[in-house]
Amino acid sequence: EAQVTQNPRYLITVTGKKLTVTCSQNMNHEYMSWYRQDPGLGLRQIYYSMNVEVTDKGDVPEGYKVSRKEKRNFPLILESPSPNQTSLYFCASRLQGAREQYFGPGTRLTVT
Amino acid sequence: DQQVKQNSPSLSVQEGRISILNCDYTNSMFDYFLWYKKYPAEGPTFLISISSIKDKNEDGRFTVFLNKSAKHLSLHIVPSQPGDSAVYFCAAIGAYSGAGSYQLTFGKGTKLSVIP
Asked: Which residues does chain A have within 8 Å of residue B34's beta carbon, measured at their own beta carbons?
């Protein structure tokens, strides 16, 4: 089944404790991206990657890191999480040149 | 500056009636528009799209209309069903950059409730 998977689905952590949210897709998509969804703000892009070893900032990159060492994986790293990063995070992927993105199920992160 | 606006945070419609969800945009470089549907605890799923060279695209019960001069698009759902209750996001893509870098800009979403 073609899909985008994210782990964990739910995470509660404390301020400053480094964490990684994994994202993996099995569709051989070149393009992957991370979004966060907040009440009243919709979906905002954090980082995106056009292909392996090619990443760039989205609209709200502060406090996040990403890496793209393999085509199928695009982890989101929070080196020192803060409460304002409490949010619902979505990973997405698509083929290069395609317009429709496929989203993962989401990761709900709470930073206390 | 919000480039894609969904001014109605919520909408309630009776089952069987028409649901109309609206979206406005400000960037004249947007040339492709998509609607995504999102259920609680799930990721957004693609619903329907329209290119700027068209003014209408239809897929079953779902029709998207585009008015370029007004920078306005709308999603019509006829007839509405309780299973359509979800958050609907409007999204826009700018002109193709040549590097495959289609970047989606999303609206804030409209929560549709279809009442049985």
From this structure: 99-100
